[in-house]
Amino acid sequence: MQRENFENWLKNIYETQEEEISCTECFDLVSQFVELETSGQDAAAKMPDVKQHLKQCPACRTEYETLRDLRRLEEEGGIPSLGDLQDLIP
Amino acid sequence: MLWMANTRTNEEWLEELRASRAKQEAAIADLRNLLLRTVLFFFSHNLRDFERLARDEILQLAEDCAQDALIAVMNHLSDFRGDSKFTTWVYKFGVNIALMAARRERWRGVSLDQLPFGVDGALSEWVLRDKSAELTSDLYVMQSEIREMIREVIEQDLTAKQRRVLILMVFNEVPMDEVARQLDTNRNAIYKMLHDARRKLKNRLQARGFDIGEILAIFSVQR
Q1: Are both B152 and B99 inside the same structural domain?
Q2: Do A79 and B41 touch (CB under 8 A)?
């Protein structure tokens, strides 16, 4: 086990809450969370349960990060075309 | 090149996806294109998951994922509350299905029983891989004490299922969706088991008088 991973895990243990939302609840709310962030609002303050879940759940966090990146691209003019994305596959 | 078909408003998307034939077909075609690009976006950022696949196989897998995501979106259309852009809401279905497919490919053929930490909870070989200099004797004693306490909780206080999931995910670093797939369960159940395990560990460490600052300082002081 890498020391960095162990430290992150220790942090996760200490940030554990008695009640935490499930992955299904996070999935339901994460698009709203990303939208708040995109509009410059404090999503973590408005949706602390989602923020907490994203810290603790690697799968939901990966999905959130990709969703956030896609939303940013859309804001900047659009996500790449199908042809451009196919060209990225070796 | 960017692709700008997302010019519909939320209301227009919903209206056209629920419309009669011709209008609906056009909206569904655009939706499918959007989902395929979502899946390919994820795949292109996670190429190491597909090292065993040829390009054609990856592209076919993306098509299959986009189709599954399209069905999921259409089945959940009534769940859309309008608290985000419709396309943001759509992306998450594509990303979710792409992530599960990618991790499944990476772990295809790998048995969980072959991993370094046994599923019986045996942590006797547990060491932290560390490039830092040798620890001072005081630090070594403190780190050993904390690790021993964690080992005790894992081996004695957790249920067999909690222990198995914790060791797979935290010690063997197996992705959550792969653990869920191989144990024939789902993400929610895995998260719940990990949450319960974290709660027990937190309570036990706090009962012994340790706080997070103290423990992190003990483990990170060498860097």
Answers
A1: no
A2: yes
pLDDT tens figures, A64-89:
999 999 999 999 988 999 999 999 99
In a domain, B2, yes or no: no
Are both B121 and B169 inside the same structural domain? Answer: yes
The shortest CB-CB distance from A78 to any of B3, B43, B216 is to: B3
Q: Which whole number is the average pLDDT over B164-184?
A: 90
Q: Is residue B3 part of a domain?
A: no
Phi and psi at residue B210, to the nearest 5°:
-90, 140
CB-based contact, B107 to chain A, within 8 Å: no
Whether B22 has its CB under 8 Å from any CB of chain A: the answer is: no
* Residue range B88-114, pLDDT digits in tens: 999 999 999 999 999 999 999 888 777
B132: containing domain: 114-220
Q: What is the reported pTM?
A: 0.90
**Interface contact flag, A16 B195, Cβ < 8 Å:** yes
